[in-house]
Amino acid sequence: MTHPRADQLRFARSEWQRGLVGLTDEDARRRLLPMNSISWMIGHLAWHERLIWFVRGQGLEVEPILDAVASGQPATTPPLDEMLSVWSRITAAADPFIDTLTTESLEVPLPFDKREPPSVAGSQFQRITYHYWNHIGEASAVRQILGHADVPEYVGDLDGLAPYRREA
User: Is pTM beyond 0.70 here?
Assistant: First the structure.
């Protein structure tokens, strides 16, 4: 059985996707200062998942397109379909690695984390999950400012999709 942290991350991802339903490329690329565009946010979350699960977790460099939406890079307004595609590839490819994580492996740094001192893997798991919630709120605000009707209310079906449970 997967770790409860994996359930929570997947729930945050599903809420992220729910908040993007009906978004057009034009609106996804709009930048309402000082906020970033929603298309940038999509790529940025994919970049963060890549950093944790591929670079720090497995020592792999994948999807170089995400370098443009890394923290600290200039703001961009990339195409929505391109960012959704790379986000989907990254999250799908990350899931098998995530499914191997145990409480014990979350209590130590990821094997290729070169920072000094590195964070334990469990803290990084929490950080990416909370990062999603930050951008869910930000993207919802952008959509409301743009006049989108029926922006989803959060939090969705937590009890059905990711209820509390003890570790596996």
Answer: yes
User: Which residue, 145, 148, 133, 129, is CA-closest to 33?
Assistant: 145
- Amino acid identity of residue 114, one-letter, is K
- Residue 45's CB is within 10 A of a number of other CB atoms, namely 25
Quote the CA–CA distance of 144 and 140 in Å, as a whole number: 6
Angstrom distances, CA of residue 18 to CA of 30, 83, 114, 142, 149:
19, 16, 35, 15, 14
Question: Which alpha helices (DSSP H) does the chain contain, by range?
Answer: 4-20, 25-28, 38-49, 57-58, 80-98, 103-106, 121-145, 158-161
Domains of the chain are 4-161 (1.20.120.450)
Alpha-carbon distance of 114 to 42, in angstroms, equals 26
> pLDDT value at position 165?
84
Calculate the dihedral angle through the C-alpha atoms of 107, 3, 53, 116, rounding to the nearest 10 degrees.
-10
Question: pLDDT band for position 1 (50/70/90)?
Answer: confident
